[in-house]
Every structure is written in structure tokens, then in C-alpha cells.
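ok, trying the design again with the full structure, not the truncated one.
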């Protein structure tokens, strides 16, 4: 059976649902989203949920900044409660990365991001529960925080449905039909969706799916773990989110008495269809010890839970957001390397601009073009701190 759609979005994570919402809210009458299982079942459902803007490249920082504006006012802008909570975000930077910290903060300030390097005294006032080391510097983002990734994806999908989009679950796309270098349809096992526009937002399945239609990109699915520790509120009633570049951890509060902690530097390649999603106790011990060096009050916490999720990583840790020049109507949105949730609102906006207008005005996404790996024009910087999830 053939069904006609003005556009088909492949993938039901927060990226796919944001794109779907932005397409239908921009006038696309009957877009369809195809999700292989359930919404958010891939990387979205296992995201850390952190929202911050400390990046070393303008494109990522700008996407994060534009996204924050949506998260802060999600119910008014889109509709629905995604649980955004402002906690502030602090960066602890040892002496050997001070140049990087200054570079990043200056870049972010040029964009308009509310961030600054603060004094030792101000850092202590903002976050008195943290230990400070000699020779450190500190950056502070007062408007950063966290939100619910799965709730965000569901909110986008719900609003998109209300505006006329179709969201199909347990409907994995099998291929994109291409004739005369043009998209003509997207197929599943049981249906054929005739369309001239297909957006591939398949997260950790992207390398496999794209290779099936003759596109080779350096994408890897990598496994990452996070843990939740239950704090003793008498010792540690609250703390902001942030990153510790000396002990290589990132952290944020969760609910009333939990702390989420991870380390973006421990990763391994994984099969998205068969990977261990349970926590590793040796990693828990390592990360907990690292965190306690900075946050002594966490020592008396209890282990609450942990889980592993998948990043879709590129060599330069930046996504691919582009149209495929050799195939009219085919677009790619993947490779967020653990940063997708923070950027999702703005990415939905720029993808809709790219599809409908042929050019993007909200953020310059030229650095994210798909051919940068072949041309050697990757987003390399000595000031990207990989630990920051």
C-alpha cells in the first residue's frame, strides 16, 4: 500500500520529533514520522538531560543558546511541560586549561550567552559545597539546568499530531527509494510512503541505515554510563550542575535528593541492537571517587541506580546537519556525540529552514556539512573538553 506524505522523518528521538514539529508548524501539511519501536527508545531515553552552553565552537554554542530560549519557555513556544529546572552550571578548570576556558567564555559571550568567568570568592558563594583547588578558574552559567528528554520528545510529538502530523510507532523504515537522484518514497516492511522529502534522524542506527542507501559517513555508536546517587540532605541539600575538568566528571542534581554523575571520556563501540544497558560497578566506583574529590558531601550518599546509553559519535564530536547534495530531497541530522538533547529545539528549527527555504537563517550550520570529513575541514579545536556531556 502506498501513502502520500509531504515529508517523512525517520527516527522518533527528541531530534526527529523536534524536526517533525517544526515542519508541521511551518506549514508542511501531512508530515509522517517513522519510529522503529517507541518514542525516545534510543539515545533520548537514556540522555543525562543536562542543558548548558559551554562549547568551544560557535555553531554548537549558538545552537545550545537558541535551544535554551525554547526550554525556558517550552509551554508557551511549543506546548507542554518538559520539566525544565534552572540550577546554574559551574565549570571547574585547572591551570593547564585556563586558555581554553577563557577562549570558550569569550566566544560564548560574543554570541550573547549569559556566562562569565567568576572569582574564587564568587564561585564559593555560588557553590559552597564544592572543594576548590589552587590555581583554578571558574565559569558560571546562571540560566542553565536540566529537563526531561523523553518528556520533551513526547511533547514535540503530541503538539505535532495536534497540528496534523502522523507519528507511527513500531514502524522501522527499511529504505529510502531514490530515482533519478531524487527521493520518491520511504518504505517500511508493510507500507510505502510516497514523498519527495526524507529526513534521516536515526541516531545510533545512522551509519547502518545510511550505508544501505549508499552514503558513507564516519559515525560510531558508542556506549556511555551515568549513575544516580541518593544524597544525605543533611550533608548536601543542593548543588548546581557543572563539570570538573580536574577530576573529569560532570554532574547535576535530580529530583529533591539525587545527583547524576558521569564521565564522557570512558566509551566503547556498541551495537545499538545489542548492547549492555546496565551499569558497571567498577565504573561506578571510579566516578564516585572522582566526584567525591570535588564534592565531599557525596561520600555518604547511597547508590540509587545507573544505566548506559548510546552516543552517535563523529570524529570531531560535532553533528552532521545537511542536505545530501547528490540526492534531491534527502536530509541528514545525526552524529550529535552526546549533545543532541541540549541542541534539539534549535536543530528542529534549522532543519525546517533547510527543507522549506533551502537555506538556514537561525544559526550558521555550514561547519556541520557532511563533506567536511573528506575535505579535512572538521571542527577541530584544542579547547573542546570531551568530558562535558
Amino acid at each position: 500500500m502506498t501513502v502520500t506524505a509531504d515529508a517523512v522523518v525517520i527516527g522518533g528521538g527528541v531530534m526527529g520529533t523536534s524536526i517533525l514539529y517544526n515542519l508541521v508548524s511551518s506549514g508542511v501539511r501531512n508530515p509522517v514520522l517513522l519510529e522503529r519501536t517507541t518514542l525516545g527508545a534510543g539515545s533520548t531515553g537514556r540522555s543525562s538531560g543536562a542543558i548548558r552552553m559551554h562549547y568551544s565552537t560557535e555553531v554548537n554554542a549558538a545552537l545550545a543558546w537558541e535551544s535554551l530560549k525554547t526550554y525556558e519557555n517550552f509551554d508557551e513556544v511549543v506546548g507542554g511541560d518538559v520539566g525544565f529546572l534552572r540550577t546554574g552550571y559551574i565549570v571547574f578548570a585547572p591551570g593547564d586549561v585556563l586558555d581554553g576556558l577563557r577562549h570558550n567564555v569569550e566566544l560564548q559571550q560574543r554570541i550573547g550567552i549569559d556566562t562569565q568567568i567568576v572569582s574564587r570568592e564568587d564561585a564559593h558563594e555560588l557553590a559552597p559545597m564544592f572543594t576548590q583547588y589552587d590555581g583554578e578558574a571558574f565559569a558560571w552559567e546562571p540560566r542553565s539546568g536540566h529537563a526531561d528528554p523523553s518528556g520533551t520528545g513526547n511533547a514535540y510529538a503530541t503538539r505535532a499530531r495536534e497540528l496534523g502530523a502522523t507519528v507511527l510507532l513500531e514502524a522501522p523504515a527499511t529504505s529510502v527509494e531514490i530515482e533519478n537522484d531524487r527521493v520518491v518514497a520511504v518504505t517500511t516492511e508493510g507500507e510505502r510512503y510516497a514523498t519527495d522529502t526524507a529526513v534521516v534522524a536515526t541516531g545510533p542506527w545512522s551509519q547502518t541505515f545510511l550505508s544501505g542507501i549508499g552514503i558513507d559517513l564516519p559515525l560510531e555508536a558508542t556506549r556511555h554510563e551515568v549513575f544516580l546517587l541518593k544524597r544525605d540532605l543533611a550533608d548536601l541539600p543542593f548543588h548546581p550542575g557543572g563539570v570538573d575538568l580536574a577530576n573529569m566528571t560532570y554532574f547535576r542534581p535530580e529530583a529533591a535528593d539525587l545527583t547524576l554523575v558521569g564521565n564522557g571520556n570512558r566509551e566503547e563501540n556498541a551495537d545499538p541492537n545489542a548492547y549492555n544497558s546496565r551499569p558497571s560497578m567498577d565504573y561506578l566506583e571510579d566516578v564516585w571517587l572522582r566526584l567525591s574529590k570535588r564534592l565531599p558531601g557525596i561520600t555518604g550518599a547511597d547508590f540509587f541506580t545507573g544505566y548506559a546509553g548510546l552516543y552517535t559519535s563523529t570524529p570531531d564530536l560535532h553533528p552532521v546537519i545537511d542536505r545530501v547534495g547528490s540526492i534531491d530531497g534527502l536530509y541528514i541530522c545525526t552524529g550529535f556525540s552526546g549533545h543532541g538533547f541540549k541542541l534539539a529545539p534549535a536543530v528542529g528549527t534549522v532543519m525546517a529552514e533547510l527543507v522549506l527555504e533551502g537555506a538556514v537563517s537561525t544559526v550558521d550550520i555550514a561547519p556541520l556539512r557532511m563533506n567536511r570529513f573528506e575535505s579535512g575541514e572538521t571542527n577541530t579545536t584544542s579547547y573542546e573538553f570531551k568530558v562535558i556531556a
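Keeping the full-length input from now on. The longest strand covers residues 302-313.
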